[in-house]
Design brief:
Blueprint: H1 8-21, H2 31-46, H3 51-75, E1 78-87, H4 95-98, E2 113-120, E3 130-138, H5 152-158, H6 164-180, E4 184-185, E5 188-189, H7 191-197, H8 203-206, H9 209-235, H10 238-249, E6 258-264, E7 270-274, H11 282-288, E8 294-299, E9 306-311, E10 314-323, E11 332-338
Parallel strand pairs: 3-6
Antiparallel strand pairs: 1-2, 2-3, 4-5, 6-7, 8-9, 9-10, 10-11
Helix pairs in contact: 1-2, 1-3, 2-3, 6-9
Length: about 350
């Protein structure tokens, strides 16, 4: 189950895919609660100017994603009908209710939808006949989706500097409060006050002293977070970082087994299935090869504050710092993304 909240459109995409895989029915393990959530997301989208169009392409992608997952499954040892379908974001869903043996390896499982086939060649493995589906729905027609958004506290503990990123945030937040006079609410700046002044698309607002001060402090805060984490990785043993990337960032040790499916486009829909631990996954192979030394490189661009990790000559991931929403009125967020060519992809 994902730990970050989805947009209504992303949830609609997941639920529609589950509905299709369940024989276009809400019966069985999906149930009335999933149908209620589906209707709620459609209602939420209907209240926005572009919502009805978004609902259309999210559902269109979901149809294609379901089709490609079934094709992949049939080629890779799964057979017969799909007998169970779950949407894992439901509050009453728990992997261990299905199989207690999954307990340790199902924590923070990335699958958004879980399906069970009548038969599989994997039935003797811990996964049994189950297959998880981790989903990303992109407007773009190509590219790789972001991997995940892990919590900042956990990674600060990994590099042996527990709470360091919260301390960096507070340092610059206090400076922003002093220099701009923007009011505080609990630990952060008051959201509505920042919203009034933080308008990067407004040429006049960008000229204001308050905006420039916030922008400068934002740049310093995120850059310091990047530098601290980058140095933390460099100071650690290659094997520890390799294992952390494999298990915590790329989720290669999760049970039940799962695939990642990415939906593309707003008209001519396409979907691509990737196996995190597949023989053809070059990143996984490079990380598993202990002769490939890990190296790091600070990366910039408009969304800067990031660095990339390589295993040998293979680019593995890019780790990027940002604010959840507006600077200093929302918390820090770390985005782990595929390290590809400049340009990136549009995502949730």
């Amino acid at each position: 189950m994902g730990i970050m909240a989805n947009t209504p459109g992303a949830d609609l995409n997941e639920l529609h895919c589950a509905f299709v895989l369940n024989g276009r029915s809400w019966n069985g393990k999906l149930g009335a609660k999933s149908k209620e959530e589906y209707d709620k997301r459609q209602e939420q989208l209907g209240k926005t100017t572009t919502g009805s169009d978004e609902a259309r392409w999210r559902q269109g992608q979901a149809e294609k994603m379901a089709e490609e997952v079934v094709k992949w499954a049939k080629r890779n040892g799964f057979s017969g009908n799909i007998t169970e379908v779950y949407w894992t974001a439901r509050s009453d869903f728990n992997f261990t209710d299905i199989d207690a043996k999954w307990e340790e390896k199902s924590k923070d499982h990335p699958a958004d939808v879980l399906i069970k086939f009548q038969r599989s060649t994997h039935s003797s493995t811990p996964s049994g006949n189950y297959l998880g589906i981790s989903m990303k729905s992109l407007k773009a027609t190509s590219g790789e989706a972001p991997v995940k958004n892990p919590g900042t506290q956990k990674i600060s503990e990994f590099i042996g500097k527990s709470g360091i990123f919260d301390r960096i945030l507070i340092k610059y937040l206090n400076e922003a409060h002093l220099q701009t006079g923007l009011p505080k609410k609990q630990k952060l700046l008051e959201a509505s006050a920042v919203k009034d002044v933080w308008k990067p698309k407004d040429a006049e607002k960008k000229k204001s002293k308050v905006f420039k001060t916030l922008d400068d402090l934002k740049n310093k805060c995120l850059s310091e977070c990047r530098d601290v984490l980058l140095q933390g990785f460099k100071d650690m043993d290659d094997g520890e970082v390799r294992l952390y990337i494999l298990m915590d960032l790329l989720d290669t040790d999760k049970i039940p087994m799962y695939v990642k499916v990415t939906g593309y486009g707003t008209n001519n829909y396409r979907a691509a299935v990737e196996v995190p631990t597949g023989q053809n996954n070059q990143k996984f192979k490079a990380l598993m090869d202990n002769t490939q030394r890990l190296t790091y490189e600070a990366t910039g661009g408009e969304d800067g504050y990031s660095f990339g990790v390589k295993a040998g000559s293979k680019r593995i991931v890019r780790i990027r710092w940002k604010f959840s929403e507006r600077p200093f009125s929302s918390g820090l967020k770390m985005s782990v993304e595929p390290w590809t060519t400049p340009g990136g992809v549009e995502s949730d």
